[in-house]
Amino acid sequence: MAAKKPTSKKAKTAVKAAAKKPAAKKAVVKKKPVAKKPAAKKPAAKKPAAKKAVAKKTAAKKPAAKKTAAKKPAAKKTVAKKPAAKKKPAKKASSTVLKKTAVKKPAVKKPAAKKPAAKPAVKASGKPSAATVAVYNHIRKIMRSAGEGGDPVKGLRKSFDDYAKVSEETMKLSGSMNRLTVDGVPCAWHTNNDTDSGRRLMYLHGGGYMAGGLYSHSALCSRLARSTGCAVLAVDYRLMPEHPFPAPVEDAVKVFKYMLGHGPHAATPARRTFISGDSAGGGLTLATCMALRDAKEPLPTAAIPISAWTDLEGTGASMKTRARIDPIAGGEGVGPIAAMYLNGKKAKDIPLASPFYGNFKGLPPLLFHVGDAETLLDDSVRCHEKAKAAGVKSKLEVYPHMPHVWHLFAPYLPDATKAIDGIGKFVRSFS
User: Fold this and answer.
1) Which of 257, 397, 402, 423 is the most buried (most CB within 10 A)?
2) Is 91 helix (H, G, I), strand (E, B) or coil?
3) Are residues 21 and 153 in the same domain?
4) 3-state helix vs strand vs coil in the chain, percent to 5
5) Catalytic annotation on 397?
6) Are 390 and 360 in contact (CB under 8 A)?
7) Residue 98: inside a domain, yes or no?
8) What CATH number should be reported for the domain holding residue 287?
9) Are residues 38 and 133 in the same domain?
10) Structural domain containing residue 228
11) Chain-centre distance of CA 116, in angstroms?
Protein backbone atom coordinates (compact mmCIF):
# COMPACT_ATOMS: atom_id res chain seq x y z
CA MET A 1 0.00 0.00 0.00
CA ALA A 2 2.90 2.44 0.72
CA ALA A 3 4.10 2.09 -2.86
CA LYS A 4 0.87 3.62 -4.30
CA LYS A 5 0.87 7.00 -2.37
CA PRO A 6 3.55 8.80 -4.39
CA THR A 7 1.83 7.95 -7.68
CA SER A 8 -1.54 9.43 -6.67
CA LYS A 9 -0.16 12.91 -5.65
CA LYS A 10 1.12 15.84 -7.67
CA ALA A 11 4.58 16.19 -9.20
CA LYS A 12 5.94 18.17 -6.23
CA THR A 13 4.89 15.72 -3.68
CA ALA A 14 6.28 12.99 -6.00
CA VAL A 15 9.67 14.78 -5.92
CA LYS A 16 9.56 14.96 -2.12
CA ALA A 17 8.57 11.36 -1.91
CA ALA A 18 11.35 10.44 -4.34
CA ALA A 19 13.82 12.18 -2.05
CA LYS A 20 12.73 9.88 0.72
CA LYS A 21 12.72 6.72 -1.38
CA PRO A 22 16.02 5.34 -0.06
CA ALA A 23 14.64 5.37 3.46
CA ALA A 24 11.50 3.59 2.30
CA LYS A 25 13.54 1.01 0.45
CA LYS A 26 15.69 0.34 3.50
CA ALA A 27 12.63 -0.31 5.58
CA VAL A 28 11.35 -2.66 2.92
CA VAL A 29 14.71 -4.41 2.68
CA LYS A 30 14.83 -4.90 6.41
CA LYS A 31 11.33 -6.28 6.64
CA LYS A 32 11.47 -8.62 3.65
CA PRO A 33 14.37 -10.83 4.84
CA VAL A 34 12.75 -11.06 8.26
CA ALA A 35 9.42 -12.06 6.74
CA LYS A 36 10.99 -14.70 4.50
CA LYS A 37 13.30 -16.31 7.08
CA PRO A 38 11.18 -18.34 9.51
CA ALA A 39 14.32 -19.44 11.30
CA ALA A 40 15.33 -15.80 11.96
CA LYS A 41 12.06 -14.87 13.73
CA LYS A 42 13.72 -14.51 17.16
CA PRO A 43 16.12 -11.73 16.14
CA ALA A 44 13.26 -10.11 14.16
CA ALA A 45 12.05 -8.45 17.39
CA LYS A 46 15.01 -6.00 17.20
CA LYS A 47 16.09 -4.62 13.85
CA PRO A 48 19.71 -3.97 14.89
CA ALA A 49 19.91 -7.52 16.17
CA ALA A 50 18.62 -8.71 12.83
CA LYS A 51 21.49 -6.90 11.15
CA LYS A 52 23.97 -8.56 13.49
CA ALA A 53 22.50 -11.96 12.76
CA VAL A 54 22.87 -11.31 9.08
CA ALA A 55 26.38 -10.12 9.64
CA LYS A 56 27.26 -13.31 11.46
CA LYS A 57 25.76 -15.55 8.83
CA THR A 58 27.50 -13.66 6.02
CA ALA A 59 30.70 -13.30 8.01
CA ALA A 60 32.63 -14.64 5.09
CA LYS A 61 31.47 -11.60 3.00
CA LYS A 62 31.94 -8.73 5.57
CA PRO A 63 34.00 -6.53 3.23
CA ALA A 64 31.20 -6.64 0.67
CA ALA A 65 28.72 -5.61 3.37
CA LYS A 66 30.73 -2.40 4.16
CA LYS A 67 30.89 -1.38 0.51
CA THR A 68 27.15 -1.76 0.07
CA ALA A 69 26.60 0.51 3.09
CA ALA A 70 28.48 3.36 1.35
CA LYS A 71 26.50 3.23 -1.89
CA LYS A 72 22.80 2.99 -2.65
CA PRO A 73 23.33 0.12 -5.06
CA ALA A 74 24.45 -1.75 -1.99
CA ALA A 75 20.81 -1.92 -0.98
CA LYS A 76 20.15 -3.66 -4.29
CA LYS A 77 22.99 -6.05 -3.56
CA THR A 78 21.38 -6.99 -0.28
CA VAL A 79 18.22 -7.65 -2.25
CA ALA A 80 20.30 -9.79 -4.57
CA LYS A 81 21.30 -11.81 -1.52
CA LYS A 82 17.74 -13.09 -1.16
CA PRO A 83 18.51 -16.15 -3.26
CA ALA A 84 21.20 -16.95 -0.67
CA ALA A 85 18.46 -17.00 1.93
CA LYS A 86 16.54 -19.41 -0.28
CA LYS A 87 19.58 -21.66 -0.60
CA LYS A 88 19.54 -22.38 3.14
CA PRO A 89 16.19 -24.17 3.07
CA ALA A 90 17.47 -26.00 -0.03
CA LYS A 91 20.47 -27.21 1.97
CA LYS A 92 18.21 -28.31 4.78
CA ALA A 93 16.06 -30.18 2.34
CA SER A 94 19.08 -31.99 0.94
CA SER A 95 20.28 -32.86 4.45
CA THR A 96 16.88 -34.26 5.33
CA VAL A 97 17.03 -36.38 2.21
CA LEU A 98 20.36 -37.73 3.35
CA LYS A 99 18.92 -38.51 6.74
CA LYS A 100 16.01 -40.34 5.18
CA THR A 101 18.29 -42.45 3.07
CA ALA A 102 20.45 -43.09 6.13
CA VAL A 103 17.38 -44.43 7.89
CA LYS A 104 16.61 -46.66 4.95
CA LYS A 105 20.13 -48.13 4.83
CA PRO A 106 19.64 -50.51 7.75
CA ALA A 107 16.54 -51.86 6.04
CA VAL A 108 18.67 -52.62 3.01
CA LYS A 109 21.42 -54.11 5.15
CA LYS A 110 19.13 -56.50 7.00
CA PRO A 111 18.34 -58.65 4.03
CA ALA A 112 21.78 -57.88 2.78
CA ALA A 113 23.11 -59.24 6.02
CA LYS A 114 23.97 -61.09 2.89
CA LYS A 115 25.30 -63.98 4.80
CA PRO A 116 25.37 -65.75 1.53
CA ALA A 117 27.53 -62.96 0.06
CA ALA A 118 29.87 -63.10 3.04
CA LYS A 119 29.73 -66.84 2.79
CA PRO A 120 32.76 -68.27 1.20
CA ALA A 121 36.22 -67.15 0.45
CA VAL A 122 35.72 -69.16 -2.74
CA LYS A 123 33.40 -67.70 -5.37
CA ALA A 124 31.91 -69.50 -8.31
CA SER A 125 33.46 -68.13 -11.47
CA GLY A 126 33.18 -69.18 -15.06
CA LYS A 127 31.02 -72.11 -16.06
CA PRO A 128 30.74 -75.61 -14.58
CA SER A 129 32.83 -78.27 -16.28
CA ALA A 130 31.35 -80.85 -18.64
CA ALA A 131 31.69 -83.49 -15.90
CA THR A 132 29.83 -81.25 -13.44
CA VAL A 133 26.98 -80.68 -15.93
CA ALA A 134 26.78 -84.44 -16.49
CA VAL A 135 26.41 -84.93 -12.73
CA TYR A 136 23.67 -82.26 -12.61
CA ASN A 137 21.76 -84.10 -15.34
CA HIS A 138 22.26 -87.45 -13.63
CA ILE A 139 20.86 -86.11 -10.33
CA ARG A 140 17.83 -84.58 -12.07
CA LYS A 141 17.11 -87.89 -13.76
CA ILE A 142 17.38 -89.77 -10.47
CA MET A 143 15.09 -87.33 -8.68
CA ARG A 144 12.48 -87.53 -11.45
CA SER A 145 12.43 -91.28 -11.07
CA ALA A 146 11.90 -90.85 -7.30
CA GLY A 147 8.56 -89.22 -8.01
CA GLU A 148 7.32 -92.02 -10.24
CA GLY A 149 5.11 -94.80 -8.92
CA GLY A 150 2.55 -94.69 -6.16
CA ASP A 151 4.84 -94.87 -3.10
CA PRO A 152 6.95 -91.70 -2.59
CA VAL A 153 8.94 -93.24 0.29
CA LYS A 154 9.91 -96.28 -1.78
CA GLY A 155 10.74 -94.06 -4.74
CA LEU A 156 12.98 -91.80 -2.67
CA ARG A 157 14.81 -94.74 -1.11
CA LYS A 158 15.47 -96.32 -4.49
CA SER A 159 16.70 -93.01 -5.93
CA PHE A 160 19.26 -92.64 -3.15
CA ASP A 161 20.60 -96.11 -3.79
CA ASP A 162 21.28 -94.95 -7.36
CA TYR A 163 22.30 -91.38 -6.48
CA ALA A 164 26.06 -91.92 -6.86
CA LYS A 165 25.81 -94.11 -9.98
CA VAL A 166 26.92 -91.57 -12.52
CA SER A 167 29.42 -94.23 -13.60
CA GLU A 168 30.38 -97.75 -12.48
CA GLU A 169 33.63 -96.36 -11.13
CA THR A 170 31.89 -94.22 -8.51
CA MET A 171 30.40 -97.30 -6.81
CA LYS A 172 33.66 -99.24 -6.43
CA LEU A 173 34.89 -99.81 -2.90
CA SER A 174 38.43 -99.07 -1.83
CA GLY A 175 39.53 -101.60 0.79
CA SER A 176 37.27 -103.93 2.78
CA MET A 177 33.81 -103.66 4.34
CA ASN A 178 32.69 -105.73 7.34
CA ARG A 179 29.11 -105.57 8.61
CA LEU A 180 28.07 -105.76 12.27
CA THR A 181 25.18 -104.78 14.54
CA VAL A 182 25.58 -102.38 17.45
CA ASP A 183 22.75 -102.80 19.95
CA GLY A 184 20.23 -103.34 17.15
CA VAL A 185 21.69 -100.72 14.77
CA PRO A 186 23.15 -102.11 11.49
CA CYS A 187 26.68 -100.79 10.86
CA ALA A 188 29.74 -101.51 8.70
CA TRP A 189 33.48 -101.04 9.23
CA HIS A 190 35.53 -99.75 6.27
CA THR A 191 39.27 -100.32 6.43
CA ASN A 192 42.40 -100.48 4.25
CA ASN A 193 45.75 -102.20 4.63
CA ASP A 194 47.24 -99.04 6.17
CA THR A 195 44.28 -98.23 8.46
CA ASP A 196 45.16 -97.16 12.01
CA SER A 197 42.45 -98.92 14.03
CA GLY A 198 43.05 -96.61 16.99
CA ARG A 199 41.78 -93.68 14.91
CA ARG A 200 38.06 -94.02 14.16
CA LEU A 201 35.50 -92.03 12.20
CA MET A 202 31.74 -92.56 12.49
CA TYR A 203 29.88 -91.75 9.26
CA LEU A 204 26.17 -90.74 9.10
CA HIS A 205 24.65 -91.01 5.62
CA GLY A 206 22.26 -88.51 4.02
CA GLY A 207 18.82 -89.01 2.51
CA GLY A 208 16.49 -86.59 4.26
CA TYR A 209 16.14 -88.92 7.30
CA MET A 210 14.02 -91.06 4.98
CA ALA A 211 16.46 -92.78 2.62
CA GLY A 212 20.09 -93.84 2.21
CA GLY A 213 22.02 -96.54 4.04
CA LEU A 214 25.09 -98.75 4.07
CA TYR A 215 24.91 -99.46 0.33
CA SER A 216 24.34 -95.92 -0.98
CA HIS A 217 27.41 -94.53 0.83
CA SER A 218 29.71 -97.55 0.94
CA ALA A 219 32.10 -96.31 -1.78
CA LEU A 220 32.38 -92.88 -0.15
CA CYS A 221 33.07 -94.40 3.28
CA SER A 222 35.81 -96.61 1.82
CA ARG A 223 37.44 -93.57 0.18
CA LEU A 224 37.27 -91.63 3.45
CA ALA A 225 38.96 -94.55 5.21
CA ARG A 226 41.84 -94.30 2.74
CA SER A 227 42.17 -90.48 2.83
CA THR A 228 41.90 -90.14 6.63
CA GLY A 229 43.78 -93.29 7.66
CA CYS A 230 40.91 -94.01 10.06
CA ALA A 231 38.71 -97.06 10.44
CA VAL A 232 35.32 -95.71 9.24
CA LEU A 233 32.16 -97.00 10.95
CA ALA A 234 29.09 -96.39 8.76
CA VAL A 235 25.77 -96.22 10.67
CA ASP A 236 22.42 -97.38 9.26
CA TYR A 237 20.29 -95.40 11.74
CA ARG A 238 16.51 -95.74 11.85
CA LEU A 239 14.54 -93.78 9.23
CA MET A 240 11.21 -92.00 9.11
CA PRO A 241 8.29 -92.13 8.54
CA GLU A 242 8.58 -95.27 10.64
CA HIS A 243 11.01 -93.61 13.07
CA PRO A 244 10.97 -89.78 13.19
CA PHE A 245 13.01 -87.65 15.60
CA PRO A 246 14.65 -88.49 17.99
CA ALA A 247 15.38 -92.03 16.69
CA PRO A 248 18.35 -91.06 14.41
CA VAL A 249 20.02 -89.04 17.21
CA GLU A 250 19.58 -91.88 19.70
CA ASP A 251 21.15 -94.39 17.29
CA ALA A 252 24.07 -92.10 16.44
CA VAL A 253 24.87 -91.45 20.12
CA LYS A 254 24.66 -95.17 20.89
CA VAL A 255 27.05 -96.17 18.08
CA PHE A 256 29.54 -93.41 18.87
CA LYS A 257 29.78 -94.53 22.49
CA TYR A 258 30.37 -98.09 21.24
CA MET A 259 33.11 -96.86 18.87
CA LEU A 260 35.00 -95.28 21.78
CA GLY A 261 35.83 -98.73 23.10
CA HIS A 262 35.59 -100.97 20.03
CA GLY A 263 37.65 -100.99 16.85
CA PRO A 264 37.22 -102.94 13.63
CA HIS A 265 39.11 -105.96 14.98
CA ALA A 266 38.91 -105.88 18.78
CA ALA A 267 37.50 -104.15 21.85
CA THR A 268 40.24 -101.55 22.26
CA PRO A 269 39.99 -97.88 23.25
CA ALA A 270 40.19 -95.27 20.52
CA ARG A 271 43.00 -92.73 20.51
CA ARG A 272 41.21 -90.28 18.21
CA THR A 273 37.56 -90.17 17.14
CA PHE A 274 35.72 -88.20 14.46
CA ILE A 275 32.13 -87.81 13.23
CA SER A 276 31.14 -86.93 9.68
CA GLY A 277 27.98 -87.09 7.61
CA ASP A 278 26.25 -85.56 4.61
CA SER A 279 22.94 -83.74 4.09
CA ALA A 280 20.59 -84.99 6.85
CA GLY A 281 23.62 -86.89 8.17
CA GLY A 282 25.52 -83.57 8.25
CA GLY A 283 22.86 -82.06 10.49
CA LEU A 284 22.87 -85.29 12.50
CA THR A 285 26.64 -84.92 12.92
CA LEU A 286 26.14 -81.58 14.72
CA ALA A 287 23.13 -82.87 16.66
CA THR A 288 25.13 -85.88 17.89
CA CYS A 289 27.93 -83.61 19.12
CA MET A 290 25.39 -81.43 20.93
CA ALA A 291 23.68 -84.45 22.49
CA LEU A 292 27.00 -85.88 23.71
CA ARG A 293 28.02 -82.51 25.17
CA ASP A 294 24.68 -82.07 26.95
CA ALA A 295 24.98 -85.58 28.42
CA LYS A 296 28.58 -84.81 29.48
CA GLU A 297 29.84 -87.73 27.42
CA PRO A 298 33.24 -87.75 25.63
CA LEU A 299 33.20 -85.66 22.44
CA PRO A 300 34.87 -86.51 19.14
CA THR A 301 38.24 -84.97 18.35
CA ALA A 302 36.60 -83.07 15.45
CA ALA A 303 33.56 -83.23 13.19
CA ILE A 304 33.02 -82.77 9.44
CA PRO A 305 29.48 -81.84 8.28
CA ILE A 306 29.09 -82.19 4.48
CA SER A 307 26.31 -80.31 2.63
CA ALA A 308 24.58 -80.29 6.02
CA TRP A 309 20.83 -79.85 6.43
CA THR A 310 20.76 -77.88 9.68
CA ASP A 311 17.79 -75.50 9.42
CA LEU A 312 14.54 -77.43 9.05
CA GLU A 313 12.65 -74.12 8.90
CA GLY A 314 14.40 -73.38 5.60
CA THR A 315 15.14 -69.72 6.41
CA GLY A 316 18.47 -69.47 4.58
CA ALA A 317 18.57 -67.03 1.65
CA SER A 318 20.17 -69.68 -0.55
CA MET A 319 16.95 -71.71 -0.41
CA LYS A 320 15.71 -69.21 -3.00
CA THR A 321 18.89 -67.90 -4.62
CA ARG A 322 20.11 -71.42 -5.51
CA ALA A 323 16.72 -73.02 -6.20
CA ARG A 324 17.10 -72.85 -9.99
CA ILE A 325 20.54 -74.37 -10.18
CA ASP A 326 20.38 -77.01 -7.42
CA PRO A 327 19.32 -80.25 -9.14
CA ILE A 328 18.11 -81.97 -5.96
CA ALA A 329 17.31 -79.98 -2.84
CA GLY A 330 14.66 -77.56 -4.07
CA GLY A 331 13.17 -75.27 -1.43
CA GLU A 332 9.56 -76.43 -1.89
CA GLY A 333 10.28 -80.14 -1.50
CA VAL A 334 12.13 -79.78 1.81
CA GLY A 335 9.18 -78.52 3.89
CA PRO A 336 7.03 -81.69 3.94
CA ILE A 337 10.05 -83.91 4.74
CA ALA A 338 11.07 -81.59 7.59
CA ALA A 339 7.53 -81.61 8.99
CA MET A 340 7.50 -85.42 8.94
CA TYR A 341 10.80 -85.63 10.82
CA LEU A 342 9.76 -83.00 13.39
CA ASN A 343 6.57 -85.01 14.05
CA GLY A 344 4.33 -82.02 14.76
CA LYS A 345 6.90 -79.91 16.61
CA LYS A 346 8.65 -76.68 15.60
CA ALA A 347 12.30 -76.79 14.52
CA LYS A 348 13.23 -73.90 16.81
CA ASP A 349 11.96 -75.85 19.81
CA ILE A 350 14.08 -78.96 19.19
CA PRO A 351 17.65 -78.02 18.21
CA LEU A 352 18.77 -81.66 18.21
CA ALA A 353 16.48 -82.06 15.18
CA SER A 354 17.46 -78.72 13.64
CA PRO A 355 20.93 -77.89 15.02
CA PHE A 356 21.07 -74.41 13.46
CA TYR A 357 18.92 -73.36 16.44
CA GLY A 358 21.16 -75.12 18.95
CA ASN A 359 23.97 -73.98 21.22
CA PHE A 360 27.42 -74.40 19.59
CA LYS A 361 29.43 -73.63 22.70
CA GLY A 362 31.82 -76.40 23.68
CA LEU A 363 31.64 -78.30 20.39
CA PRO A 364 34.82 -79.83 18.91
CA PRO A 365 36.64 -78.28 15.91
CA LEU A 366 34.48 -78.28 12.77
CA LEU A 367 35.13 -78.45 9.03
CA PHE A 368 32.13 -77.54 6.86
CA HIS A 369 32.03 -78.63 3.19
CA VAL A 370 29.29 -77.25 0.96
CA GLY A 371 28.77 -76.57 -2.75
CA ASP A 372 28.07 -73.11 -4.11
CA ALA A 373 25.22 -74.53 -6.22
CA GLU A 374 23.29 -75.88 -3.21
CA THR A 375 20.09 -74.53 -1.69
CA LEU A 376 21.55 -75.69 1.63
CA LEU A 377 24.57 -73.40 1.20
CA ASP A 378 23.44 -71.02 3.94
CA ASP A 379 22.77 -73.86 6.36
CA SER A 380 26.53 -74.44 6.49
CA VAL A 381 27.54 -70.79 6.21
CA ARG A 382 25.39 -69.66 9.13
CA CYS A 383 26.29 -72.63 11.36
CA HIS A 384 29.95 -71.91 10.71
CA GLU A 385 29.41 -68.31 11.80
CA LYS A 386 27.49 -69.35 14.92
CA ALA A 387 30.20 -71.84 15.84
CA LYS A 388 32.93 -69.21 15.55
CA ALA A 389 30.86 -66.76 17.60
CA ALA A 390 30.60 -69.46 20.31
CA GLY A 391 34.38 -69.85 20.40
CA VAL A 392 34.54 -73.07 18.36
CA LYS A 393 37.39 -73.61 15.90
CA SER A 394 35.49 -73.80 12.64
CA LYS A 395 36.50 -73.82 9.00
CA LEU A 396 34.20 -73.39 5.99
CA GLU A 397 35.10 -74.60 2.49
CA VAL A 398 32.72 -73.72 -0.35
CA TYR A 399 33.32 -75.47 -3.68
CA PRO A 400 32.32 -73.53 -6.84
CA HIS A 401 29.53 -75.07 -8.97
CA MET A 402 29.34 -78.22 -6.84
CA PRO A 403 25.93 -79.85 -6.27
CA HIS A 404 24.57 -81.51 -3.14
CA VAL A 405 27.07 -84.03 -1.65
CA TRP A 406 29.35 -84.03 -4.70
CA HIS A 407 31.79 -86.21 -2.71
CA LEU A 408 29.72 -89.23 -3.77
CA PHE A 409 30.82 -88.76 -7.40
CA ALA A 410 34.53 -89.45 -6.94
CA PRO A 411 36.58 -90.20 -8.95
CA TYR A 412 34.34 -89.19 -11.88
CA LEU A 413 34.21 -85.62 -10.57
CA PRO A 414 37.71 -84.21 -9.85
CA ASP A 415 36.36 -81.82 -7.21
CA ALA A 416 34.90 -84.80 -5.35
CA THR A 417 38.33 -86.40 -5.06
CA LYS A 418 39.79 -83.04 -4.03
CA ALA A 419 37.18 -82.65 -1.28
CA ILE A 420 37.77 -86.17 0.09
CA ASP A 421 41.52 -85.53 0.14
CA GLY A 422 40.84 -82.26 1.98
CA ILE A 423 38.91 -84.10 4.67
CA GLY A 424 41.80 -86.55 4.96
CA LYS A 425 44.26 -83.70 5.48
CA PHE A 426 42.03 -82.12 8.14
CA VAL A 427 41.62 -85.39 10.08
CA ARG A 428 45.33 -86.25 9.87
CA SER A 429 46.18 -82.83 11.35
CA PHE A 430 45.00 -84.22 14.71
CA SER A 431 47.91 -86.51 15.52
Assistant:
1) 402
2) helix
3) no
4) 50, 10, 35
5) no
6) yes
7) no
8) 3.40.50.1820
9) no
10) 122-428
11) 4
Of 413, 418, 397, 370, the C-alpha closest to 139 is 413
Q: What's the CA gap between 302 and 158, in Å, rounded?
A: 32
Structural contact between residues 368 and 383, judged by C-beta atoms closer than 8 angstroms: yes
Residue 165 inside a domain? The answer is: yes
What single letter denotes the amino acid at residue 259?
A: M
- Contact indicator for 120, 381 with CB cutoff of 8 Å: yes
Query: Taking 70 as the threshold, does the pLDDT of residue 34 lie above it?
Result: no
Give Cα separations from 294 to 7, 35, 99, 249 (angstroms).
Answer: 99, 74, 48, 13
- Tell me what the pLDDT averaged over the chain comes to: 79
Whether 279 sits among the annotated catalytic residues: the reply is: yes
Q: Which residues fall within 8 angstroms of residue 117, CB to CB, at 6 or more apart?
A: none
User: Same domain for 203 and 302?
Assistant: yes
What does each C-alpha distance from 134 to 129, 139, 147, 167, 215 come to in angstroms?
A: 9, 9, 21, 11, 23
Q: Is 145 a catalytic residue?
A: no
* More confident call, 319 vs 85: 319
Has this prediction a pTM greater than 0.85? Answer: no
Q: Is residue 198 within 8 Å of residue 263, measured between CB atoms? A: yes
Note the pLDDT tens digit of each residue in 373-405.
Answer: 999 999 999 999 999 999 999 999 999 999 999
Active-site residue, selected from the candidate residues 174, 216, 218, 279:
279
Does residue 158 share a domain with residue 71? no
Q: Please, where are the H alpha helices in 37-151?
A: 47-57, 62-70, 73-80, 82-109, 115-118, 130-146
